[in-house]
Specification:
The chain is built from two helices and 28 strands. By secondary structure, the protein is mainly beta. The chain has two domains: 100 residues, Immunoglobulins (Immunoglobulin-like, Sandwich), CATH 2.60.40; 214 residues, no CATH class. The strands form six sheets. Strands 11, 12, 18, 20, 21, 23, 24, 25 and 28 form a nine-stranded antiparallel beta sheet that branches. Strands 13, 16, 17, 19, 22, 26 and 27 form a seven-stranded mixed beta sheet that branches. Strands 1, 3, 6, 9 and 10 form a five-stranded mixed beta sheet that branches. β16 and β17 form a beta hairpin. The longest helix has 29 residues. The chain is globular and about 70 Å long.
Length: 367
């Protein structure tokens, strides 16, 4: 009898202990540490990957009208496909398939600080890492101001605000090192052959890439010149670049200041018309064909001078030439095409068949 009671007591004690152990285990599993860092490398899936976001975008700033860019870097052994997405981001901010974040604030109401913008990176297995950051828009909106800008598409005669890419500035030399446009382009020669561009002021040429920018001299800022060139030690394959360039409302008669390969007529001014305004001033509109082939060295041109407060330059990069109606416009062999602004910002042109640069004579600061 005593043995039976003793066994019952033992069984009751064992069940009670097991129940308490399970409750304590559940309490521990339901708790999680607090993580206030800008990067969260946790995952909602059971699969883990050796990958983390190794760069930081927190406390970034962008000047109103300029383009903000951030390309998050990852580290670790994972080498598979990644998918990127954005949340809690300002209207118009995008993230590309490769993770590049881009945004141009162009409304007065956007001059503020955006907090906790979130980037989510997902691996092929569903493993998720995230990063949050703050972005402050600085500067001011000046109604009626006359500023230089860049748009996608043909904006010679009208302005589509939805195509606005940002404000731009020209590269300018300094009082101790002054360069004419030809000197700034800096190509080298050997007899009748001209070799790679070696410009002094402006972006650095690199293989397989196209560069576009404005330049003016330190002591002659009334005149601006459009520079563009392709490649640098481009490799063994010969690449063809065909573009059309149009200038309008230019107060100066323009020409191809630099034609990279003399005698080959790679850059040709097809026509130049002028109009006399009511105030007696003359404005010029010109058309250029650029037909280039680069291989071991870069190629390109300088067009100008451009002056006045109304001029715009339209560069056609794709489709069929509207000048000769037969040539296919193409950027063969180029992995990227960018406009470089003198303030250090860049505007990717790879997603646009054409773009316009020039003066934006007014800005709406009411929105």
């Amino acid at each position: 009898m005593y043995k039976f009671v003793y066994i019952i007591i033992i069984l009751i004690f064992s069940v009670t202990t097991l129940s308490c152990s399970k409750k304590e285990s559940a309490d521990i599993d339901d708790s999680s540490p607090t993580d206030n860092s800008s990067t969260d490398n946790s995952s909602s899936s059971t699969t883990t990957e050796d990958i983390s976001i190794s760069s930081s975008a927190d406390n970034s700033t962008v000047v109103f009208g300029q383009t903000y860019q951030y390309d998050p870097a990852t580290s670790g052994s994972y080498s598979g496909t990644l998918t990127y997405s954005l949340s809690n981001a300002p209207d118009g901010m995008t993230i590309s398939s490769s993770g590049l974040v881009e945004w141009t604030p162009n409304k007065a109401s956007e001059i503020k600080t955006y907090e906790n913008i979130k980037i989510t990176v997902t691996t092929a297995s569903g493993y998720v890492i995230t990063q949050t950051f703050d972005l402050a828009v600085t500067g001011s909106c000046v109604s009626g101001g006359n500023i230089m800008a860049i748009w996608s598409g043909d904006q010679r005669t009208s302005t589509d605000s939805s195509k606005f890419l940002g404000n731009i500035t020209a590269y300018t030399d300094n009082s101790s090192v002054t360069k004419t446009p030809v000197e700034n382009y800096g190509y080298t020669t050997s007899g009748a052959t001209r070799y790679s561009v070696k410009k002094t002021f402006g972006p650095t040429a690199s293989a397989g890439k196209g560069s576009v920018f404005f330049y003016n001299e330190y002591d002659n800022r009334s005149y601006i010149f459009l520079f563009y060139y392709f490649g640098e030690n481009g490799g063994s394959d010969e690449n063809d670049v065909n573009i059309d360039v149009f200038t309008t409302k230019n107060n100066s008669a323009s020409y191809d200041v630099v034609d990279d390969d003399a005698g080959q007529n790679e850059t040709t001014r097809v026509s130049q018309d002028n109009t006399t305004l009511d105030n007696g001033s003359v404005q010029y509109s010109s058309k250029y064909t650029g037909r280039y082939s680069y291989k071991d060295n870069s190629d390109g041109a300088v067009i100008g001078p451009l002056s006045g407060s109304d001029f715009r330059v339209f560069v056609d990069l794709g489709g069929t030439s509207t000048i000769d109606n037969s040539t296919t416009l193409t950027l063969d062999g180029l992995t990227t095409m960018k406009y470089f602004s003198g303030d250090g910002t860049t505007h990717s042109l790879g997603n646009h068949d054409n773009f316009t640069v020039g003066f934006k004579t007014s800005m709406d600061c009411s929105n």
